[in-house]
Amino acid sequence: MESSRTRSASRVFVARLVGTAVFDPLGDPVGRVHDVVVLIQLRGEPRAVGCVIEVPGRRRVFLPLSRITAIEPGAVITTGVVNMRRFEQRKVETLVVGELLDRVVTLKDGTGTVEIRDVAIERDAGMDWKVTRLFVQRASSGPLGLRRGETATVRPDEVTGLAGGMEQQGVTALLATLEDLKPADLAEALRDLPHARRVQVARELPDDRLADAVEELGDDDAVALLSALESARAADVLEAMQPDDAADLVAELPKLKANELLALMQPDEAADVRRLMRYDEYTAGGLMTTEPIILPPEASVATLLAQARKAEVPPALAAVAFVCRPPLESPTGMYLGMVHLQRALRERPQQMVGRILDKDLGAVGPTDSIGTITRLLATYNLTAMPVCDEAGRLVGAVSVDDVLDHLMPDDWREADDAVTDEMIERSANA
């Protein structure tokens, strides 16, 4: 072992490299480093072959290390040639942040196990990049070596288990890189991980955070992820999802699995999902959520603003409140009208919402088509439409993001931007 303070001029620690800006030779920004790709070989030092960089549009692409001319504090300089094709990990490749950090390995000197906290890469005389050092931390006390929590730097050949299975790896470092991502970007990051690693990370995410990400995954990925979770946890995630998204996902599950999860959910949450599953996918009933902002007419503007500020309310639904007679859970009492957030912001906090209603816009019925809803949203510049039954009770609301989601091609999340544009154009011309 050597002291963790030892450094080489060309040595780069990956955890510190992540997030570094990438520039072309003219100084124009290209993106930021997201991860480093290595090849773990049976003999010799593991080789580092490239970086995964995140370019504008949240696309992740592969940049070979051979095209990097310099790695400086706060900057990575490239030759200027970057292939914008989306990065797809090969079976022989290992992601340092995604798959090596927090991995438990065994020291060959017999002093026990340690966890990898960082990985150093270094360019050799042949201009190839190799993994030359592992910064490790003792997870528990050993008989002869490091005490619990003590750190050291070791060579890759001084440990075993570097290419071990996922069960040897924690997710602390990876979760830290995902902490501030928006739901759509978190879903994209999960899609980039191998399935086993994806499930491992999902198990450590809070229910609401995982629910937000699952809502942004494609059907196949969402079904695979939910099916891999323990049934009780999967039911908790469904409860944390928007009811319409949960209904869409349950409808894609095998019937036995769907029934099992619905039975594990809270009865009222399961009832909402079952009710939504009765409608065709491309109708207002199939698109709507049963949990928009619903207020009685005597509620104040201050109450409306407080409801709109809640983090769990999607932006499209936060822009409008629906005013009804009690009961206030869908199906409600008589629907009276809607209040736009912009109008509410111009009123006194104590003003009753029943006095600033927009009654000119009618509601759609549960069986109205997505085409009808789209035209009304576009005509009146709305972010959400009320859905009422024949008795005039509010049963839900359709938001513009759900409509857009269903108008896009099924695989739009996985397609490249140019391909997506072509698919949208075809859909529009169909």
* CATH level 1 name of the largest domain: Mainly Beta
Q: Which whole number gives the mean pLDDT?
A: 87
- Oligomer state of the chains in this structure: single chain
> What share of residues are in beta strands?
15-25%
Structural class: alpha+beta
How big is the Rg?
A: 26 Å
Total helix count?
A: 18
Distance between the termini: 66 Å
CATH topology of the largest domain: SH3 type barrels
CATH superfamily of the largest domain: PRC-barrel domain
Main beta-sheet annotation: 13 strands, mixed
Taken from the alpha-carbon principal axes, the silhouette is elongated
List the SSEs and their pairings:
Elements: E1 12-13, H1 14-17, E2 21-23, E3 29-39, E4 47-55, E5 59-64, E6 68-72, E7 75-78, E8 94-95, H2 96-100, E9 104-107, E10 113-123, E11 129-138, E12 151-154, E13 159-160, H3 172-178, H4 183-192, H5 195-204, H6 207-216, H7 219-228, H8 231-240, H9 243-252, H10 255-264, H11 267-277, H12 284-287, E14 294-295, H13 301-308, H14 315-318, E15 320-324, E16 335-340, H15 341-344, H16 370-379, E17 384-388, E18 394-399, H17 400-407, H18 417-429
Parallel strand pairs: 2-7, 14-15
Antiparallel strand pairs: 1-10, 2-3, 3-4, 3-8, 4-5, 4-11, 6-7, 9-10, 9-13, 10-11, 11-12, 15-16, 17-18
